[in-house]
Write a structure and sequence with these properties.
This protein has about 260 residues and is an alpha/beta fold. It has helices at about 25-35, 95-100, 160-170, 210-220, and strands spanning about 15-20, 40, 60-65, 65-75, 85-90, 105-115, 120-125, 130-135, 150-160, 185-190, 200-210, 225-230, 235-240, 245-250. It comes from Streptomyces ruber.
Length: about 260
């Protein structure tokens, strides 16, 4: 069986959740439901909570096989970017915010309760890459990950990889790049995939069983292929956007015989 959220023991610095900030959540449900087979349910706890992204209004949880895999949320302001954001878990969000500031990052939105689900904050690293923090309440994070149709990797594209390693190593106590590094996170120079004018950013990866078929589905649903399939140390990757412009990646690994996440 796939992991359940209650069974996952997320250490600090592990990617525990992803959500998309969209202009049209209903359109997002059609796109991602068609691509990954997700079902959607509203999140009552978050309806009146002004969360990490400053939004208000109904958010929806995405589910696969009855397990939570992601969230879709309305943008608070139409001028804000349409993006996927990765959340890193922490048992003490206030202390982590302090380390981010001390290491040269910025806190966009301070720690904010999201109903009973937990507390969230939004920050940037010294180069401007945006990420979120999550201190669990009733929601620990993913109910399913590393399986087709769910989150499997977060790649940081940085201008200076050494700066990134220094910052995240300090902020998360080497959880990302140290000897016991989280298996769901990597970093690379922007020039490896993107043009130099692209700002530093995190790219959320979702697992698929057949990359070519998934790319065809993306285009059929109105999305676009931004980077054709290329090989990486963690699998075969393609970068796409949904029909509203949110970028993400599709990752094909060898799933033969695999029924649960590590």
């Amino acid at each position: 069986m796939a992991e359940t959220a209650a069974a996952v023991a997320y250490g600090e610095g592990v990617p525990c959740w992803v959500d998309a900030q969209l202009s049209d959540v209903e359109a997002g449900k059609r796109f991602y439901g068609g691509l990954f087979g997700w079902d959607f349910h509203e999140v009552p706890e978050a309806h009146d909570a002004r969360g990490a992204h400053g939004r208000q209004g109904p958010s929806v949880g995405a589910f696969l096989g009855g397990e939570a895999v992601a969230g879709l949320a309305p943008k608070a302001d139409g001028r804000l970017p349409t993006v996927w954001t990765v959340h890193f878990t922490t048992p003490d969000i206030a202390a982590l915010v302090g380390r981010i500031r001390a290491a040269g990052g910025q806190v966009i939105t301070p720690p904010t309760p999201v109903g009973t689900l937990g507390a969230a904050a939004l920050a940037t690293d010294p180069e401007g890459a945006v990420f979120a923090l999550w201190q669990p309440g009733t929601r620990c994070g993913f109910g399913r990950r590393h399986l087709p149709g769910s989150f499997t990797w977060a790649q940081l594209y940085a201008r200076d990889v050494n700066v990134a390693e220094s910052f995240y190593g300090y902020v998360f106590h080497d959880a990302l790049f140290g000897p016991g590094a989280a298996p769901d996170f990597g970093r690379a120079a922007l020039s490896e995939v993107f043009p130099p004018e692209m700002p530093p950013h995190f790219l959320v990866h979702f697992a698929v069983t057949d990359l070519g078929e998934a790319l065809g589905t993306v285009e059929r649903l109105g999305g676009r292929v931004r980077a054709l399939p290329f090989g990486a140390s963690y699998g075969r990757v393609a970068v796409v956007t949904d029909d509203q412009g949110a970028s993400f990646a599709l990752l094909q690994r060898d799933w033969q015989g695999r029924t649960s996440a590590p």
